[in-house]
Structures
1.
Amino acid sequence: MQELYYAQLQSEQDDARALFHDMSKRMKAMKALVRENSTKEANLLLEETQCLYENLGTVVDVGNPIISAILNEYKDKAAKESISFTFSVSVPPQLNLSAVDCYIILGNTLDNAIEGALSTAEVDRKIHLQLRQHQGTLFYKLENSCTKSHTIRKRNKSHGYGLQNVNKCIEKYHGEMITSYANGIFTFTSQMSCGLCEMDRTF
């Protein structure tokens, strides 16, 4: 995940450098076209330049490479499904959660959030993630649009291994998780100790 994150970041930086290196040439070309009253060609060049700028990579960097890699992956997944994905993250560069546990917790809950959002009309699809560490405790909250019928259907299914695995991970860090549904929004919240997990204490 970290290798993918750094590759994405490098690609974005390379694209940005290439565009800004080319920008002065594009500006001179547009000025020349305007002087020659070739406004149609100038507008086409302006539109092309604007399109290149808007399509620059938007790699997420929250200061923690593992969390950044996970957010990048799910940002792309959400975008492909026309889901608005916003987040507020404040965590140190290193968490006392293993990369595997981070991915189990965030990955499973984000998979569920995307599935839930897809049960709603495209205009209503949204996910909002909050992740913060404060005084040795990691707080995680994930909200997503969802239909009531979808939550009932999920609750009646017997394959809820994803949340079971999430709960096991959270319990390792002396935490707990709570889920709720109201007004078209499904909410997952948890808090975990950033101290040693139970597995670490056995060594």
2.
Amino acid sequence: MTNEYENDQFFQAYSQMPRSREGLDAAGEWHQLRELFPPLEGKAVLDLGCGYGWHCRFAHEQGAKEVLGIDLSPKMIAQAQERGVPDGLFYRVCGIEEYAFPSERWDVVVSNLALHYIENLDAVFQKVWRTLKPEGTFLFNMEHPTFTAGVHQDWEYAPDGTPKHWPVDQYFYPGERITNFLGCQVRKQHHTLTQILMGVLNAGFVLEAVEEAMPPAKMMDIPGMRDEMRRPMMLLVRARKETKK
């Protein structure tokens, strides 16, 4: 997994984003993702690619008995720790692919905007299945295949600077995509919708929800937000580790 977040220029720009400064309420997808969380009271929760720790703190506030957030970036973990580490909440510098995924350890595994950096998603899905307790929940949000297959992951613009359309190319060719994000080159991994959803199913999960993120009505007056209704940017999936009978 690449680690652009250790680039000082990139991290500084990232830290100025509304979701970095204001937390979950500034994230356009949060109104949908929040509804997909299972009850967390008394649960053990693992956050893959926890970033600033917003979802870890949410889980702790909802009564989770234990929460572990892992992230490849020491800068991200440092920011998460600066916001406070109450009893039962833990952070660790660790990449998703490097984590041990102990057998039947967690009730809930969540990942937000991290899995599109992973090349071998199937392997991660299988490890998540292993580390979940029976009937455990896997909830993730990643960049939508329509977004990762976008040409330079940007709009085609009219002469006056307004977005004309979102060009998509090489959709059925998974692999690395290099795009400009926050003034830096960022490496991501493109996966088709089939690869993502069948990867979840083939790992042994039961799909419970599949949603494409849309900004809430209260955010529509934010510049550029109405254009987010023209193509999906994020894919939200909730799956369950079904107990074998």
